[in-house]
Design goal:
There is one protein chain. The chain is mostly helical. It starts with 7 loop residues before the first helix and ends with a helix.
Length: 98
């Protein structure tokens, strides 16, 4: 795990997130904790990652999400060389939808 982010404060934040019970609670909490732009940026990156895993082109992804090619490239780097966090979540979401 990335030791740069492992702090007591981040532990507290993640514990708070894990206490959320449903999507409505997520909206309530994240609207207080984050700016609208931060939430939209996170959701955009998540959509970019999903589209990259579907083998969509950078052009298609940029058109559909509004993400810059730099953002798409950064997300692609995380998918290929990161901690597999995106894939872990995608797999769980896929199982929930089956």
């Amino acid at each position: 795990m990335n030791s740069k982010i492992r702090t007591e404060a981040v532990d507290h934040l993640f514990q708070a997130i894990l206490s959320l019970k449903d999507k409505e609670e997520c909206y309530t909490f994240f609207e207080d904790v984050c700016t609208i732009n931060e939430i939209l940026s996170l959701s955009q990156r998540f959509e970019v990652a999903h589209m990259l895993r579907e083998q969509r082109t950078y052009l298609d992804i940029a058109e559909k999400t509004g993400a810059s090619t730099a953002t798409i490239s950064r997300v692609n780097r995380s998918l290929n060389y990161g901690n597999d966090g995106y894939d872990m979540v995608f797999e769980r979401m896929k199982k929930e939808n089956e």
